[in-house]
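Why does residue order matter? Because the sequence determines the fold. Keep that principle in mind as you read this record.
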Amino acid sequence: MGAPYHIRPSRWHSRRLAMLAGCLLAVATVAPATAQNFPAKAITLVVPFPPGGSTDIAGRALGERMSQILGQPVVVDNRAGAAGAIGIRAVATAPADGYTLGVSGIGPSAVLPALGREIGYDPARLTYIGHMGSTALMLGARRDLNVRTLSDLAALARSTPGGISFGTSGAGSPGHLAMELLLHRLGVRMNHVPYRGNAPLLNDVIGRHVDVGVLTMPGTPDHVKAGSVIGIVALGGERTKDLPDLPTVREAGVPDYAFELWNVLVGPPGLPQPVVDRLSAALATAMADPDVRAKLEASSIIPVTMAPDQAKALVDRERGIWRDVVTSLAIKVD
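Structure:
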């Protein structure tokens, strides 16, 4: 048997191997380079609601601090409409490079999909970067309604079926679904009156044009303390710092009930992990800043810090909860 036959690589073949090795090395170093170079320009932060609300306040406070941490401007872009879907759709369809981000809340990420709305994006495919704080809600009554507690309100509703009105910031809004769930737990019916936001709803509770309202905390505690709104219960799992004497729904006798608004920082589907890590770290640092926390708390926003996987788990869980609520209560919104 002859000697083994060896193939000796030609110079051309050697050059090809060297080129291939160089390409593999370049691919292997893309992620670290991306992490080192990002961001290289301004970041657009889409807030899917008008200026002045809790989502806008959280976005601006955290965005300003993140711009200092990242060394590039974070520019807030308010794109309101369709209960937040228009703004988050713009984020979902943007290039997955980290330069277009959004502040998505319980509405765009959980409630709208639960209602079967055509929103133009899949919330499950968004990239979740971290938590941007929660906002408590409360149930308040007009000052001349003869109720002081949740039991009083339930008794009045039972004695006048369909005769008590409740207002929310819109049909199909998170507050609307939260109230429908509470009424179901209480076993009573009330007439829903949708408003275009919290401000006109609060004005009508003060003006005694609607019996009760599902109200956000910013601005409302002052009216409760002044007596122009009767505070009945806080809808969250804990009492609020603004109204520490206001009991929660659980304390008022309805077990396993807690509801609050929340905001998360999101990016388009497929955001590279090094970019996610950089943004998540900047958000966590901003959230820990005492000045930022003070600014959030002054607007009744509760600072909450979460890693990307925790934020995604929160949204996935909430989406399932509200899908079950909509299905079990047969809630339909035109």
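Residues 149 and 232 are 5 Å apart (CA to CA).
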